[in-house]
Amino acid sequence: MQESISRMKIKFLKFSFLFFLYPFILFSNGNKNELFSIITIGPYQNELYSAFGHSGVRYQNIEQGLDVFYNYGIFDFNQPNFYTNYVKGKLTYMVGKNQYSFYERYYSNQKRYIKEQVLNLSSKEKIFLLDYLENNVKKENRFYPYNYIFNNCSTKIRDVLELTIGEKLKFNDPPANLSYRSLIDRYLDNYKWADIGIDICLGTKIDDKASNYDAMFLPEHLFSSLENATVGDKKLVFETRINNLDQDQIISRGIISPKIVFSIFLIISLYFSFRQIKYHNKFIYFDSLLFFLSGMIGILILFLWFFTDHISTNNLNILWAFPLNILVPFFIIKRIDSKFLNNYMILSSFMTFLILFIWIFYPEFFNNSLMIFVLAIFLRSLTNAIYYKKQYNRI
Description:
By secondary structure, the protein is of the alpha+beta class. The protein folds into 2 domains: 31-176 and 211-243, endopeptidase fold (from Nostoc punctiforme); 258-394, no CATH class. Helix content is 51%, strand content 15%. It has helices at residues 2-29, 82-88, 100-109, 123-136, 153-165, 180-185, 192-201, 219-228, 258-279, 284-307, 328-334, 338-361, 368-394; strands spanning 34-41, 54-61, 66-74, 92-99, 114-119, 143-145, 169-170, 178-179, 209-210, 230-231, 234-235, 237-243. The protein has a 7-stranded antiparallel sheet. Strands 7-10-11 form a 3-stranded antiparallel sheet. Strand 10 and strand 11 (234-235) form a beta hairpin. Helix 10 runs antiparallel to helix 11 and helix 12 (338-361) packs antiparallel against helix 13. The N and C termini lie far apart (131 Å).
């Protein structure tokens, strides 16, 4: 009888010990029925805003039959002042939640690859992350000020993981050692005109070197960084799944490239400059078009620089796209004061030469195709400076 009581006491003590220890086991190993994954969607080359890829968070609860996708990349064309805010760089994005299967079908139909990284989180971290995401999708919390480099779908996920895991999370990738501009350019092979627009409108800030941490504004860099990330002595990602890598997208390319268009401007400039020096011909309408276009671009640069939140300050393109160029056609067509035109053309020659000189030594700061157009402006400015100097000396 006493032996039986002793055995019962031992069993009771074992049970009590395991019961007391169970929460710690649960929180240290994580709940196996709940999975969090980071989803990386490949670029879609038929829409500019999808050309850089996309990121989101997948949550699965096997017991409850849940499989949802938290998406930080939603914007609404119908929101008040959408286009005005877009121009000003004050776009508001929001986080949404929907069935993962819906997004999987949508991206698969676009023939985009889908990479899934299953995270190695404790139960405590899973509870925090789920609470954070659920709180984020509430109507009063779902909106955030979007920035295409510093606050987008990819950086939001990086920041959420840092909040969830804390200082234990370490990103171990080697430095990217590339500028923001270089990183962006990698995705714009099929968008040559958009590439030129970005290079014209954005200032020298995007020529700063991006650290590995900063480069995570691109979904592919977030993916590679998470692959090598660690939490203490364990890897953050314990399983990576890749789908749809064998599917080729049908890409619609523009027929006329910027290089062809700007080369035509340059050839015409060379021909007209030759005739103007040799035969003293004037080509007022071509010059008016050239300076009017560069002046309009200069006004756009000034607007972006001083009146928007875009990364457009300290823009060196202002040296060739000088806003006052827009007034030059009036003086050329009306044939007003050759002395003024002579001085202005000298100034324009100097500024465009300076840009071309900087480009030779720092080609990464400028768009190579655009420099063909700048060279055309330089030729016409220099030729006109020589021409108007002769005209002024004859008076």
